[in-house]
Structures are given as structure tokens and as C-alpha cells.
Specification:
CATH topology of the largest domain: Polyamine Oxidase, Chain A, domain 2
Distance between the termini: 31 Å
Helix content: 25-40%
CATH superfamily of the largest domain: Protoporphyrinogen oxidase, mitochondrial, domain 2
Number of helices: 13
CATH class of the largest domain: Alpha Beta
Radius of gyration: 22 Å
Low-confidence stretches: 1-7
Strand content: 15-25%
Structural class: alpha/beta
CATH architecture of the largest domain: Alpha-Beta Complex
Shape: globular
Mean pLDDT: 92
Oligomer: single chain
């Protein structure tokens, strides 16, 4: 598509943003036979959900996983075609004396005895947590969303040792926040999805999700929206006219295009990708399991050997490790190396940094009282979608896109 100043013919819908929400909305609208155009400022679709090949290894934009239990993922994605590579359903706790694995015995019965011996807390505390997680696992989405709210800390303090050593460090990496002030309703929904599904990545990287969603979608990349109204989008090189305009960007870009739009507080993180000159089996017994450090002896909140789950990411004669810290630093490389040495009980002096990704304002905060659904249409007639309008997750982004498409279809009927 040549870049020239022009006035395009009218579309039914112009979508700004080719992330998960924008692509999901476009998919529904195209299926409804609407004339759609999606524009995005980046060189590839997917927003935060993208991958690249660096020096022969696959690197996602930060450590990300797909939970195939997400109902919207089951509805929107061809999960079989993604060739999902599963991680171990559990966490590895690096204690002061040794590391031990807590693995879901329902999905890995052979781990039952070791898990029982390794779960922290008194027997009463363990029983209380078992009852809690069973209730969460059985609960329907609406039941969890509309229960009495409070902080994650308040909800989980009945099993303090388990929360301190397992849940808090695990949730810190999921939420990009270690304050435990997130809404307990959101935490319950996340815990439910983790109990019901085994997190995984597509064999060729998380970016394959965006590639699959974008097939058949009219898409213009490297095109930035400069100004929008309810019926026009002015980009860096043309004007697009439409019967409806949908903004499906991150919240701060949306606020730039729609002055006065309230934006949530955003969490940030930094992910390091290391290549270690050791076989995958040399780290964590070859298990693709998330390792956490409850005592936080360094900046990292989690780390995992990616090609222990997905050998397609890198040759298995070298381990590819993804490790994440909260915030954007600065972080000293020696500090990261020292923490990794502790977490893996290994010499990390020869580990090579493949990429360091700073993800500023990447995950919307979800404090107590935050609604699970926010309107898809604003008072000025512009439509809006994104995980900041739903829940901060891939599930939330996909649902938000579907809701926006339904609202647009109803308006244009």
C-alpha cells in the first residue's frame, strides 16, 4: 500500500490497534460481513503478544503463557494448530536450604507424595487452602466476579505460610505486582484458570497467536493514528472514513487519541533472555517449571527454562531461560546473574544475554472495586476495547474485542 495523502472510501469499521482486542473484534466483524480496516503503528500484529527470532532462538515480548482453559481462547483460536507446548502445572520454590517442586497432583499423580511433603504450613492451613481452591475451581465466572470484594492479601491470609511461600511470589509474576492489593475477585478468576488448564506456549512462539488471528483481516501496519472522531481516523499519511471507529490500543495511547479518557494505573516489568551453554536437562532436572524465590534474594520474581517446554524455541543442547523482574530498573547485570545462580544452583558466569526487554506500562492494575466489564462505547460515539476494559489478561482482551464488535454490530444494524 503506497503512502500518499488521500481520502479512503468509507469502511463500516476502522480499528486502531492490532493487538488481541483489535484482532478479535475484526474477526467477529468480518464474520458478520462488515467492511473492516485495522491499522497498527507496529511492524507486526499482536501488540504485546508477539515474538521474534534473535540469533537462532525464539524470543517472546516478555515471558508470556497461554492458558488453554480460557473460554475465549477456546472460542477464538485453533488451539490444535498452535501446537501448544505445556509447562509443568506447578511451581518450584527455591528455599534457603534447597529447592522443591509443588506440582498439581491431579494432573501429575506421581508428584502427589513429594507435593504433600513440600506444601508449607500446618495441616489445618493446608486443608483450608484445599477447600478454598476447590471452591474457586468449581465456581462459575459470574459467581467469582460478583462475590464480596477485598484485597488478595485479605482473601488469602487464612493460609499465611502457603500465601507467603507460594501464592504471593507466583501472583507477583502474573500481575506484575507484589503488593497483594489486587482485587481478590480477579485473583480468584486467575487461580481458577490455572487449576483448570495447563499453561503453554505455541511451538513457534506466542506471536503465532496473533498470526493466526490476523489471517483474513484487512491490516495496514506501520500506520499510526494521529486523530480520531466517531467517523474518521487521521493517520500519519491518510484519512480513513468509517461508520464506526474502534480504539483497541493500550490505555495511554487511547487517552492520547481520546482526551479526558480515564486510564488505569499500569504495571511494568523487565524480562531477560539468557542462553546457557548447558543441556536443558542440567537445569531443574529438565522440568519446564516456573521457579520463584519467596525470600526475594534478588530482583527476579520468576524464571523458567523455555525450551524445556518448547524445544522449538532453541536447540536443547543449550538452555534458553526467561526471567522477569518487576519495574523497569535500572538493574545491574551482575545482580541478575547472581540471583539466577542462586535460583538454579548453577554457575551463570558463561550465560549469554540474548535480549533484555523493558515493558513499561504493560499490565493494567486491578484494585478492589474495579468492574469486570466497562462500556464498549463512549459518550462521544467512539468504541473502545482492550484488556483495560475487561480483565488484564489475554482472555480479557479477547472478550473485550468480542463485546466491542457486538456493540458496533448492534449500532450499525
Amino acid at each position: 500500500m503506497s503512502k500518499r495523502a488521500s481520502i479512503d472510501p468509507t469502511y463500516d469499521v476502522v480499528i486502531v490497534g492490532a493487538g488481541m482486542a483489535g484482532l478479535a473484534a475484526a474477526k467477529h466483524l468480518v464474520a458478520a460481513r462488515r467492511k473492516v480496516m485495522v491499522i497498527d503503528a507496529n511492524s507486526q500484529p499482536g501488540g504485546r503478544v508477539r515474538s521474534e527470532l534473535i540469533d537462532g532462538v525464539t524470543v517472546d515480548h516478555g515471558f508470556q503463557l497461554l492458558n488453554p482453559s480460557y473460554p475465549e481462547a477456546q472460542r477464538m483460536l485453533n488451539l490444535k494448530a498452535l501446537n501448544l507446548r505445556e509447562f509443568t502445572p506447578g511451581v518450584r520454590i527455591r528455599g534457603s536450604e534447597r529447592a522443591h517442586n509443588l506440582i498439581d497432583p491431579f494432573r501429575s499423580p506421581r508428584a502427589l507424595l513429594n507435593t504433600i511433603k513440600s506444601v508449607p504450613g500446618s495441616r489445618l492451613e493446608q486443608l483450608k487452602f484445599a477447600a478454598y481452591i476447590t471452591d474457586v475451581a468449581k465456581g462459575y465466572g459470574n459467581h467469582l466476579q460478583y462475590r464480596t470484594d477485598g484485597t488478595a492479601h485479605d482473601a488469602l491470609r487464612a493460609f499465611d505460610d502457603i500465601t507467603r511461600d507460594v501464592l504471593a511470589p507466583f501472583l507477583a509474576g502474573v500481575l506484575f505486582d507484589d503488593s497483594m492489593t489486587t482485587s481478590r475477585r480477579l485473583v480468584d478468576v486467575f487461580l481458577r484458570s490455572f487449576v483448570r488448564g495447563t499453561p503453554a506456549v505455541p511451538a513457534t512462539g506466542m506471536g503465532e497467536i496473533a498470526q493466526q488471528l490476523s489471517r483474513g483481516i484487512p491490516l495496514s501496519l506501520n500506520e499510526s493514528a494521529v486523530r480520531v472522531t466517531a467517523t474518521t481516523v487521521t493517520t500519519n499519511w491518510r484519512v480513513l472514513k468509517a461508520r464506526a471507529v474502534l480504539i483497541a490500543t493500550d490505555p495511554h495511547t487511547a487517552a492520547r487519541l481520546i482526551p479526558g479518557l480515564p486510564t488505569p494505573h499500569m504495571r511494568s516489568g523487565t524480562t531477560w533472555w539468557h542462553r546457557a551453554p548447558v543441556p536443558v536437562a542440567a537445569l531443574n532436572g529438565g522440568l519446564p517449571i516456573l521457579t520463584v524465590d519467596p525470600q526475594r534474594r534478588g530482583p527476579l520474581v520468576n524464571t523458567v527454562v523455555m525450551n524445556a517446554a518448547a524445544p522449538e524455541y532453541a536447540s536443547t543442547d543449550q538452555a534458553l531461560i526467561a526471567s522477569t523482574a518487576l519495574g523497569t530498573g535500572p538493574f545491574a547485570s551482575a545482580e541478575i546473574s547472581k540471583h539466577l545462580s542462586y535460583l538454579y544452583e548453577a554457575n551463570t558466569a558463561r550465560w549469554e544475554v540474548v535480549a533484555v526487554q523493558t515493558m513499561a506500562q504493560t499490565v493494567p492494575a486491578f484494585p478492589v472495586g474495579t468492574p469486570f466489564r466497562q462500556p464498549s462505547r463512549l459518550e462521544n460515539g467512539i468504541f473502545i476495547a482492550g484488556d483495560h476494559r475487561d480483565t488484564p489478561s489475554l482472555q480479557g482482551a479477547l472478550v473485550s474485542g468480542r463485546r466491542a464488535a457486538a456493540a458496533i454490530t448492534h449500532t450499525l444494524a
